[in-house]
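note to self: the first set is below, dont mix up w the second
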Amino acid sequence: MISVVFYQRERRIRQNTAKEINRQQSLVHLEMHAFQAQMDPHFIFNSLNAIHHYILTTSTDMASLYLTRFARLMRLIIRNCNKEWVNLEEDVEALDLYLQLEQLRFGPQFEYKVEITSKVFQHVTFVPPLIIQPYVQEAIWRRLLLRPGKTGGRLQIIISREKEQLSICIEDNGVHQDMPREEAHLTRGISIAAARLQALNERYNMQAGITEKQLFDEKQQPCGYQVVIVMDQASSRL
């Protein structure tokens, strides 16, 4: 009896250890792919091409501004790519830099606003890096840039606290269309973000999820799109 109990106990320990190792390996794999998706060759090429354009048109101030923001964003992405958690302040900084760079390129095609409510303390609230940006990127490229007339786009990101959960609402007034094959990398970034959030759910027993829905006006005509990411709010992470 003692031998059987001991054997079963050791077997459970080995199985649990193997599961934890598999979870860790899966998370590392997803983080690597998230980093690759974030370092999107299209975005890097277009950003460098824009800097080159400003240099050629003698707009040295714009070229310097663009290059400084681009370098800062790359530094943040590389620094945080192997972390499970970063404080919200850093994540929002990276997101804002990305939005500034895209707005420099597309000018009047869209405007954006990032709002963080007073109940959210950025420097002590931790979130998984590389989760929010893929959805923002999708809102810009799949919807806002497809608006008729190429003007009037609005993107709003509201980060709030709902009881013990952090809520990130991404809302736009773009035109929702099927994605062209050449822009399939946007879907890949979103799939990786969702998979990473699910993996963290399992590891930390978090209550996190992502909901998406089409928005309609009073005449029941499509007028935009909304993505809401919710997760347990944590004031510290190991």
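second set (the one i keep forgetting abt)
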Amino acid sequence: MSDDPSGWSLTESDPQVFTQLLRDLGVKGLQVDDLYSLDASTLETLKPIHALIFLFKHVGYGDGSGSSGVEVDPLESGVWFANQVINNSCGTLAAMNAVMNIPAQKSEYEGETIELGAELDNLRDFGAGMESMDLGHILSSSDRIREVHNSFSKSSPFSMDPSAFPEREKEDAYHFVTYLPIHGVLYELDGLRKTPVMHAAVEDDWVDTARETIEARIAAYPAGSLMFNLLAIRSAAVPRLTRQINDDATPAAEKYQLSDQLEHEKSKAARGKLENTLRQNNLLPVVFQLFKEMGQSGTMDKTVEDARAKGRERREKAKAKGEEE
């Protein structure tokens, strides 16, 4: 956990982290994916997309890095919007600002219903009619949300005082902002702003307008800047793909394509599950103790040499297999 006095630790901008975070909070029917391109073919494979989370290097507003749009009162516009009131929480806050505004969707098909779950349903009901700052305090004071958020923090054997590296901390200040359609309007939800930002009226394909808005924001940075990341919150893919493959009405040729997508999604989910398990379990004390015991027992050198031998053997087998093919 971070040494930040707020009790909230830094988390990674990894889609599997966000997917598991939502699931651990009770959200059903949604997953989060990296979005490397906003071209039509890429978007088609991810639809339906319900929200975008934009990660960017925060260099302050008023210097061209801020966004255009009109600030609106969230209560009057019907937008659930919470301010960021503590450090390190912007990723989880962006996810909360997104899912609290994604309409619940009932489905007759297993796994395709979208719902918040009891924890967030109760939180939304409790905060109904509250100001954005109050909602921010409610989120930050939720033990459950903080525990889930902190469960994905990186394990480290060292504890460093951030104040000892003021320049580095400033350079590494990144921030998450949410874009999504609410009541037919594209909104930008940034917890560091006092209110939501309304951009434009949108129809079904709202992502086109969001792409233009985000591209304009990126254009405010120096050419060639690589300090951005874009995540898509979309409907869970595996239940839908499984249903379509098992549907007799699906053409055979299309089933092959869907099967490839399903295999990719399952592989990605399995890899994400493993990575999140490693994130959520601090193995460093076990590793240090193992090294200590091996050093004291005199088995360290033999173990290292055995590992090197196995590595050489694997490389030789891989090389021989490549030559055979």
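remember for set 2: The domain at 15-235 is CATH 3.40.532.10 (Ubiquitin C-terminal Hydrolase UCH-l3).
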